[in-house]
Protein: Polysaccharide deacetylase
Organism: Chitinophaga ginsengisegetis
Amino acid sequence: MGDLSKKIFSVMHYVANKVQQPAVILLYHRVTTLQQDPQDLSVTPEHFSSHLAHLATDYNMLDAERFLYHVKNKKAFPERSVFVTFDDGYADNYLEALPLLTKHQVPALFYITTSKINTAYELWWDDLERVLLTPGNLPPVLQITINGQPAQYTTDTLAAIRETYYALQQVLRFCKPAEIELAMQQLYEWSGKTATGRPSHRLMTWEEVKAMGDASYAAIGCHTHRHPAVGMLSYEEQYTEIGMSKEILEGVLGTPQVHFSYPFGGRKFLGTKRYYNADSIKACKALGLQMVCANYHGQVHSWSNPYALPRILVRNWPPDVFRKQMQQFFKY
Ligand SMILES: [Zn+2]
């Protein structure tokens, strides 16, 4: 953002927040301790517990039903309203996050990706990390065909392998699910590694998703079946991807699903590449979803679009950093 647009943005925020108290949606992915976390998406249980202690004391924590009520009816939020969400559906959400949410009596909404549940497989970006960044000898060069385009990457040093990991991560996030699978097959063959995932990166089982759905401080939402950037799919493909996760979750939980979050979900784009678009919103509406979260920095007001709500991505912040970040969102 340029200096002038930054200024305009901050003035707009100032005015909006003067008119009405904002609410904030926090976005977490994992609560656990990992050996490496190249996407920086994991928060340690110690830090998460300190976040919750602070939120429970200083903020007005809303649950999914309450937040939806304000969004759907365009009602102003109570002062200092905060809503906690989790994307993807990792097992640690149930094993490590839920006990802490219960202890601090903070409710959260968990968006679930359905395709890898009760399988031995990891989500593709974890799989990519497992193949490239965990111990094992790799050939010095990777030749791979993605979307019919042959490409070559250097993998002869640790630094080169890391660079290759980040480059492929960028390319694959804008590919269709079948194309990602083809790329992973080539990577398994090239590396000599199998498709079997690590216990540390597994998703919740269906039993765990059900237990989560029954828990007092948890609610469930959809996050597509195979986690593609829906903005790269046709309207029909989007409808199917989003609709499949909704249908599967409704079958397992026996309750209508009205919550959804876009995979990746950023508003930024690369050329023609999009994480979500107007068709995504149309598909969500057609499927009867009522509240949809994106992943761009911002606060929520009663007039915010319920089909692309901003969220604040929480990193593994120590208590003092988390406290300062929270102050920032409510400083106006
Ligand atoms: Zn996700």
The chain has eleven helices and twelve strands. The radius of gyration is 20 Å. The mean pLDDT is 94. The pocket of zinc ion is lined by residues 87-88, 223, 227, 263 (CB under 6 Å).
